[in-house]
Amino acid sequence: MKWHGVAIRKWVRTVRSVYSNMMPLPYRVLVVQTLVAGLIAAMLVLLVSVAYAVAALLAGITVLIPNAYFAWRVVNLDAGDDPERASRRLVIQGLQKQLLMLAMMVAVFIGGAPAAWPFFGTLIALLGTHGLAAAMLGGPPRGRMADGE
């Protein structure tokens, strides 16, 4: 059983080293979330029904579009030398992302009620993937506290 942990750590190190130089972390997290949404939808279409897969895809779109907007804003952040302004803009952009996600969720349910458990299950899986992928692909936190200052 111990070799599973070693294999997973090696895989994470390999993925982290390959993708760390290719694109910024927010975009890498989006790639992982897209893959997870596609995998869930594919499993649902094969194992359950097309309607459930469509609900999973709608949840994926509901999460991915606001996260793509947020990633674009974070990567292209222009705050100059003022860290207070940068942090304020980051909080505002996070709030915008959440409001956009809420508006898209309302639009999905107004447009036609998808199956509830695949929609919310995929939504929860993608939100969990957001934090997990950032931790796995980004490595340990970097900053003043992590550097020992």
Element layout with pairings:
Blueprint: H1 2-20, H2 25-47, H3 50-75, H4 83-111, H5 116-138
Helix pairs in contact: 2-3, 2-5, 3-4, 3-5
Polypeptide structure, described:
The structure is a single chain. The chain is mostly helical. It has one domain (21-135). The chain is built from 5 helices and no strands. The protein has helices at residues 2-20, 25-47, 50-75, 83-111, 116-138. Helix 2 (25-47) runs antiparallel to helix 3 and helix 3 (50-75) runs antiparallel to helix 4. The termini are far apart. Mean pLDDT is 79; it is low at 140-149.
Summarize the structure.
The chain is built from 5 helices and no strands. Helix 2 packs antiparallel against helix 5, helix 3 packs antiparallel against helix 4 (83-111) and helix 3 (50-75) runs parallel beside helix 5. Helix content is 81%, strand content 0%.
What distinguishing features does this structure have?
disordered C terminus, flat, 149 residues, mainly alpha, single chain, 5 helices, 0% strand
- Mean pLDDT over the residues: 79
| Uncertain spans | 140-149
Helix content: over 70%
The major β-sheet equals: none
Integer count of domains: 1
Query: How many β-strands, per DSSP?
Result: 0
**Class from secondary-structure proportions:** mainly alpha
Total number of helices: 5
End-to-end distance: 39 Å
Relative strand content: under 5%
Order of helices and strands: HHHHH
Rounded radius of gyration (Å): 18 Å
**Which descriptor suits the 3D outline?**
flat
